[in-house]
Amino acid sequence: MSNYAYEFIGLLSGICMAASDIYAEAIVSFARDEQLADNLISRYRKGDIQGALFVEKFFSDDFIRGLMDAGLPCVIANDESNSEWIHSQMDFRLIGRTAGSYLAAAGYKRIGIAAGPLDHYIYREILAGFRGALAEEELAVPPEWIVEADKDGDAGYGVIKALLSSDNRPDAIFAMRDNRAETIYQVCAELGLNIPDDLSVIGYDNISWPGGREAGLTTIEQPVNDIGRAAVELIEEWYLNGKVPQNRILPCRLLERRSVKKKQ
User: Fold this and answer.
1) pTM > 0.85
2) Which pLDDT value is given to residue 32?
3) How would you class 30 by CB atoms within 10 Å of its CB: exposed for 0-12, middle for 13-18, buried for 19 or more?
């Protein structure tokens, strides 16, 4: 499966379990046809559905605004784009702060980052949190050690290999998504670098690299089931109270394994 598929299935599982807990039915649709908005509004007015829940924001603001204008409650599960709509999401800055604080506490000062596209809200926020944690320890990441690992469509293989092949390479690296950590492991194997003796690695999500646990990757968990559950709870609260609820921002959890070695 694609890296995104693991995340999607986890979110969908959380949504369906939460619906079952409140004796509700989750009607799953993959439709993208022009009649979708009309169908949703019609079913809402008939009482067939009480709200629409979107897994991430794949529809335009105009599409969702049309549903909201018709009175249909709409919630986005796992909003990573800072949209204006009610949503459940991770505390992205906390993810970055957790990674930065952990590496700093382990004694690292030469730290690199394998980021996602920094024109995306989620990665800018994670980076801001990471930099903030390092700044508290009077540390900073040189710009040349921040690589956007998806630009070439190869999970960052080219830019990560260039970074780790350099004579001036970092001693530790934060991978914003575990599939980028997988690429780091691949590159280290090719270059003869040992993890964690030569390079410490910390990731984020505990989803996108199924082999991460076996490889011993220390990572920050993205609790996709809980994110899906929170979105259902928002729909339920909206329906029961008749008021627009507050967004649900979920904390993260560090999963320590063996890919980060404390400096002596």
Assistant:
1) yes
2) 76
3) exposed
DSSP state of 168: S
How far out from the chain centre does Cα 224 lie? 9
Residue with tokens 């990471």: 130
pLDDT reported for residue 31: 78
Q: Enumerate the domain spans of the chain.
A: 3-90+223-250, 92-221
Gap between the Cα atoms of 42 and 27, Å rounded: 15
Label the pairing between strands 146-148 and 172-175: unpaired
Distance CA 120, CA 81 (A): 7
Do the domains 92-221 and 3-90+223-250 match in fold? Answer: yes
Give per-residue pLDDT as tens, 207-263: 999 999 999 999 999 999 999 999 999 999 999 999 999 999 999 999 999 999 998
34, 26, 35: which is closest to 54 by C-alpha? 26
The CA distance from 246 to 187, in Å, is 43
The CATH number corresponding to 92-221 among 2.60.120.380, 3.40.50.300, 3.40.1190.20, 3.40.50.2300 equals: 3.40.50.2300
CATH top-level class of 3-90+223-250:
alpha beta
Q: Which token pair is 241?
A: 């109270």
Q: Is the dihedral of CA 180, 181, 186, 192 positive or negative?
A: positive
